[in-house]
Here is the input.
Amino acid sequence: MLDADFFRRWMTATAASVEREAERLTALDSPIGDADHGSNLQRGFRAVTATLEKEAPDTPGAVLTLTGRQLISTVGGASGPLYGTLLRRTGKALGDAAEVSEEQLAGALRAGVDAVMTLGGAAPGDKTMVDALVPAVDALADGFTAARAAAEQGALATTPMQARKGRASYLGERSIGHQDPGATSSALLIAGLAEANGE
Ligand code: ADP
Ligand code: MG
Here is the structure.
C-alpha cells in the first residue's frame, strides 16, 4: 500500500529532477515554444516543495490536490493548468484514504490524464504531454518501472510528430523533428513514481 509519505516522496523526487533538468526543458521549449517550460516548472515545484513542508498533508489525495493547486497558481503558461488539473483530479479520485493500492493509483491517474485531455483537447499523437502520460498509465498495471519506460518512450516518440495543440502547433510542419518539452517533463513526473518506490 502507498501512504502519504510515498506521495510526498513522489513530489519531492519530481521537484529534484525538474531542478536538474530545467535547462534542458527550457532548451526543448526554445525551437517549438517560448523557452520557458523549465523555468515555469522549476518555479512551480519549488513552491510545491515549500507548501508540502509547511502544510504537511496527511493523505495521498491531499498531497496531490495541494500540489495541483500550487502548480495552478505558480506555473502559468499552458502547462500550469494542465499539470494542476492532472494532480488535482488524480488526488480527488483517491479520496481521503490514508493508504491506497497501486491499482487505485493507476485508476486515479487515468482519471487525471482524462481530465488533461478534456481541458486541453489534445489526443495521443498531437505532440503534447498526453503522449507520455497515456502510455505511462497504460503501462502502470505492470509496475512503476514499466510506466517510467513507457513515458520515456512516449516522450521520444513526439519528435517526428507535427504539433496539433499548444504553442508548437503555430509552427505547423516546422514543429516536426523536435521533442516536446511537456512530454519530456511528464516523463520526469512518472519517473518520480519509480524513484519514490526505490526503483
Ligand atoms: P506555454 O506553451 O504556455 O509556454 P509551457 O512552455 O510551460 O507553456 O508548456 C508547454 C507544453 O505544454 C507543451 O510542450 C505541451 O506538452 C503542453 N501543452 C500545451 N498545450 C497543450 C494542450 N492543449 N494539451 C496538452 N498539453 C499541452
Ligand atoms: Mg513555453
User: Anything to note?
Assistant: Residues 4-28 form the longest helix (25 residues).
